[in-house]
Write a structure and sequence with these properties.
The protein is mainly alpha-helical and about 425 residues long. The chain has 22 helices and 4 strands. Helix 3 packs antiparallel against helix 4, helix 7 runs antiparallel to helix 8 and helix 7 packs antiparallel against helix 11.
Amino acid sequence: MLAYVPPLLTARGVVGADTKPYLYLDPGRLLAGAPYMWLKNVGLGTVPHQNIGYLWPMGPFFWVFETLGAPDWVAQRLWISTILFAAALGVRYLLRTIGWDNGGILVASLAYMCSPYTLSYVARISVLLLPWAGLPWMIALTAKSLRFGGWRYPAGFALIAFTIGGTNATSLLLIGLGPLLWIGHAWMAHDEVDLHRVAASTLRIGVLTSATALWWVAGLRVQGSYGPNVLRYTETYRVVADSSTATEVFRGLGYWFFYGNDRLGQWIEPSISYTNNSLLLIISFGIPILALAAGAFTRWKNRAFFLMIIVVGGLIAVGGHPYQDSSILGNGFTSFTRSDAGLALRSTPRATPLLILGTAVLLGAGVAALSRWRPKIELALRFSLAFLVIANLPPLWNGDLLAKRLQRPEEIPQYWRDAVADLDSASHATRILEV
């Protein structure tokens, strides 16, 4: 309910400029062109940038709702809601997989779903939230692959990677550290599996995931070889590093775009509240502080893993900050981004989901521990913290989830249609310049 109802009540009848306008205008045409690495109708012909990634799942999602006759704004809200729900359900699945069966599951799931991390992407490039939503699923399927062997769970892992990785390889590679760290944790920390099981499961996951990634890897290869060098025309690593302070990453923020503005206002409108509203500052810092306190004062199996992904995710997300006076590790990030391969991985704050997942689970562990110690307060404690983590994402329930400056009516103005019809009725021997 929380994932679906508030977005459906937000800006009803209005479409936001999220990801690709073609998804709302004509998803069938987008899907028809996505498999091809040459688009003759754009400019004078071009190799598209990351177009192939919309073959799955975003393109088919909007095509299905278009075919059913659903309004575009409803399809858009359901897309956002489904990502949020999948993230919360993934945390639940992960915690069930590692043996949890308590009220901490609810709090951990909500804390992950309601992280302000989503705000950097949800209004403009929501497709980049797919790796965030897929992270807990991938760790859980890795754990089951190690525990039970066979091909079933590696196949599930590969299907998740197939679903979340087609549009942005950087995000997939960074959150892929989570499953990798789980393998090392399961082998070395608890001796749950022997080296043979580790090698066999890792090989199965690697083979199947590589096979399911070929469709978009081939597209990236062609794009990198023959397309425009978009890395030279986008944000630099200095821009990324200047915003990724440890304090901002700690509360799930730190992505440079979140803080940007121009003469029309903030690019991400809720950023004003997260930097100026005293109550929201207290909540957004208070939640991870409570989580770390729970990690310090509770003892439970797998605690070391979640502390480890907090540290690893935080170090990578902070990266080269401060750019002019980095640590030894930060200098390594900065040097790496001077190559084309390194520059492609410049968006280090996309490792933040590792930290968010770790703090969400530690918070849930604190709830479980206090509930065992004082069973009478379990219900009140669970719902108090659930309320707190929901309050950490006010745009979800106050109508600010979609950027107001990027909204447009559901229907395209008739004068646009008239102009297109007039141009279409004329000679096709020339091209049209749209400003």
